[in-house]
Amino acid sequence: MPRDQGNDAFGGAPSPHDGPTDSLARLLRTTHNGHGPATAPAPGAARLLGLDALTLNMRARDGHLELLWCDPDKGLGADLDSLQYALGDGPTLETAQHGHSLHEPDVLATDPARWPLFLPAAARTPLRAVTTQPLRLGAALIGVLTGYRTTPGPLTPGQLHDLHHLAHSLLLLLLHSDQADTDETTGLRLYRADVHQATGFLATELNIPLEEALLRLRAHAAAQNQPMSDVAQAVLTRRLPPDTFKSTT
Fold this sequence. Notes:
By secondary structure, the protein is of the alpha+beta class. The protein has 10 helices and 5 strands. Strands 2-1-5-4-3 form a 5-stranded antiparallel beta sheet, with helices on both faces. Strand 1 (53-59) and strand 2 form a beta hairpin. Helix 9 packs across helix 10. The protein is globular. The termini are far apart. 43% of the residues are buried.
């Protein structure tokens, strides 16, 4: 087994007697307690797992990933997720494509060929370690939970076990929540709603397929070294006219 897949990667398989920490267990009970709508864990789950950020992506019907939850709500996790979305490359996308967990305790030592676009960009951020958990229902991949750290090194077996518990709890949340639910009911929200709106606007204005419009948004964001959300907002507020995207070069 490659060193970055499976439980052994972060220090060996957890003991069958290991369980979530008391604090994380309380967070998991609030996620799906059988009384009222399920909700995302309260802020602090990442810290309890020894991580600096967590992101939850759901796989949409068209195969794209939708960012629905971050802990903390802004900062490292959301920024790295946006970076992967703009580049089309990175650990979350690899897990979504292949369906396996991965663990890189030192991204600066990762083979550059693995994520040729993501790694050079991530090296300019505080990221030093990353782990992912696929959220699966049978053979179907429902989403991806990704954890980020600003210091290199493996998670402990207990922390990895807790991550599995959190992934399972979030899978239940995705299965029982409506995509139209808002922050107020589930704690989930579409982080890239503006990108979707801008994609639809460009597709209409330029008379091109949605996939092509999204590729042109990504190309512009990469060329200008801007977040996708900033480019989308510029399109929606007409600061970037549609003619800007008639060519992807």
